[in-house]
Hints:
The structure holds 2 protein chains of 2 kinds.
Chain A: H1 13-23, E1 27-34, E2 37-42, H2 47-57, E3 60-70, H3 71-74, E4 76-85, E5 91-100, E6 105-107, H4 117-127, E7 130-132, E8 201-207, E9 210-217, H5 225-231, H6 238-242, H7 250-264, H8 271-299, H9 303-324, E10 333-334, E11 337-338, H10 344-369, H11 372-378, H12 386-392, H13 397-400, H14 408-411, H15 432-456, E12 474-481, E13 484-492, E14 498-504, H16 506-518, H17 523-532, E15 543-547, E16 552-556, H18 558-567
Parallel strand pairs in A: 2-5, 6-7, 8-15
Antiparallel strand pairs in A: 1-2, 3-4, 4-5, 8-9, 10-11, 12-13, 13-14, 15-16
Chain B: H1 2-11, E1 33-35, H2 45-49, E2 55-60, E3 65-71, H3 80-84, E4 90-92, E5 107-116, E6 123-126, H4 127-139, H5 145-152, H6 158-175
Antiparallel strand pairs in B: 1-4, 2-3, 3-5, 5-6
One iron/sulfur cluster is lined by residues 40-46, 68, 84-87, 89-90 of chain B.
Amino acid sequence: MKTNNDIASRIGESHVTAARERFGSAILKVHWGSKDQVVFDVAADKAPEVVEFLYYGRGGWLSVVVGNDERSLNASYAIYYVLSMEAEDPCFCTVRVTTPADSCEFYSVSSKVPAVIWGEREVQDMFGLRAIGITDNRNLVLPDDWPQGVYPLRKDAMDYRFRPAPTTDVENYEFLSETGDKETTVIPMGPLHITSDEPGHFRLFVDGEDIIDADYRMFYVHRGMEKCAESRMNYDTVPFLAERICGICGFAHSVAYVETIESAQNIEVPARAQYIRAIILETERLHSHLLNLGLVCHFSGFDTGFHHMFRVREKSMNLAEMLTGARKTYGLNLIGGVRRDILGEQKIVTLKYLEELRGDVKNLADALLSTPNFIDRAAGVGVLDRKTARDYSPVGPTVRGSGYARDSRWCHPYDAYKTLNRKPITQDSCDVKGRTLVRVAEFFDSLSIISELLENAPGGPILNDSWSIEPHRYAVANTEAPRGEDLHWSMIGNNQKCYRWRAKASTYSNWPALRYMLRGNTISDAAMIVGSIDPCYSCTERVAVIDVKKQKQQVLSRRQLENYCVDRRHSPLES
Amino acid sequence: MLKTIREVLRTGNATVQYPFAPVKRPEYARGKPDHDSEKCLACSACAVACPPNSIQTVVDITAGKTTWSINYGRCIYCGRCQEVCPTGAIKLSPEFELAVMNKSDLEETCVYSLASCSECGEFFAPAKAVDYAARILSRSRGDDEHMRRAIELISVCMNCKQKHDAYRYWEKSKQAGELLC
Ligand code: SF4
Ligand code: SF4
């Protein structure tokens, strides 16, 4: 019988004791979902305080907020706040609250812990639950023209193929601005042109050239993957879908997904498979960091560097193709292991590639870092101060550039990372420069991790396919994608389906903090700052600039903004 | 600056002439799955494994046909089909240039006939798959009762098999004097 509750293997006991001491009977029940995952069932009205206590009092960071329609299981909806405990006694603590199916209300944590805000807004949209006291009540995911009362992730709401007809032509989303005593008007913008990879709608509130505040909106191309996985896929084919969440760090998602199942169902993964997963995850980091470094070159006007980064990046793509059979979407993961082994001759070629990459990137990175323009453009720009970082739980190089040693690989080691003894790479400058330096250092770190893993990988099988599943067990799993922690949560149901799958991509954690990074900078730095959290930079597609003094709005194209960022002459606002 | 210029001269031209000159993908690259309709048994194992349902089989029980089809437009080149195919009838090739002018050209279909039950005459399983199973069984050394019966009933449909089993159970119980009704 699967049991995760034998005392010897429990991690996180100290948090339970502390919470029990503080909140007494408000902690209704505690159980371990897997070895290092504690779930607290908490009385609804005490949830905000418990989350706050674990977050600020016990060194927790918010990983994800998961809503779940559990009416068929226990006649209620459940909300899970997953916290990554990174100070003493590292583990995952999940605070679970339920809300009865008739009231659909729960107490918002957002006024105590700002980091939950996107998660709670999403739960409101997707499940039609109401967060009492939420600090930002706007839609997050659902568009303005979505019909009222259709909550996509409710089990009885809709078929996954259903595309409701738009209910309104009016854009009613209100962009926020904190511009002090200066009155601003929010002016509706034209239609969106999804001409680039990722659409997003930004508004910068400026005074002359200075950014006073910024707001933005995403989810224009929400693909409904979670719904699709829950209704259309079988739980064992979801890794292939998960891999398609992101065109860059897809493998990190597919590993995170399979590990939720492996962890919830106690499925053992052969050691060699764990090494292979880690090697491919690092290969993915190589090409992702080179992409971002290329873009940094581009934004700081060093276009030769940009082209060379991309030339060199091609080697990491070839490496991935050799190891997996494809440049991207490696299709390697199954529950219980991987599908392709790394053969002896591939190992030799990989080591050769790593050597070449080390030399090439060293030259390029030296060139970039010694360009006076780069230091000029990056130092002191886009500051993510330590307090904002603490409040919003950003991840990856974004938070590590602000001096926090948050790296999922070393805070909650998984796969072959368990065998390595390394520390997160950090920088204290909190600016674009810090984040770039973190990426450069991590690139070289990844090279040495891959060689180390290749040398030490044990032999043996790569797939364990004899296991059984027990419905309705759930677990989280983390991976450190190039942009930061990816966190998945899943619960298998009956009929070979995922009952609920929640995938949190790394940039989801970084967006809420971006607003604060933009404040106090000039428009010419905007693209550089957005680029420094490493989303697809085309998220700056269509920026509306609203001059708070002149009450004037002007829409800039991405090209104009980018060109201005590159050469810093001919401000597009001066015409 | 000088260093950068030297680097540029050293590395030369990095771009390739594709599509004006062909590029060769390595052997191990995953591309278009090639289907060998001769080897295929129409057993549907690939259709069950295929994550995006790019492979489908549609059975027409009255006509006694099963149609195997693949839609390359849906295929994600994962190779699950190759992994589960019992005969090696489907294999990934490195080919990646799959653009067509006409969407329907992305689809390929093969029709296979079903075997009919030797007792009731209903169509029940792809004829080639039944043959294949018979061949495997006849090669097996095991001479136990179980195996003999499997060979005996190879061309009998599910329903008739159940009837056989029920009858056998009844016979046995009668011999043992256990039948209560
Ligand atoms: S390669 Fe994958 S997607 Fe394509 S047909 Fe085979 S199983 Fe289906
Ligand atoms: S698994 Fe192989 S034999 Fe069976 S239907 Fe698919 S291609 Fe044909």
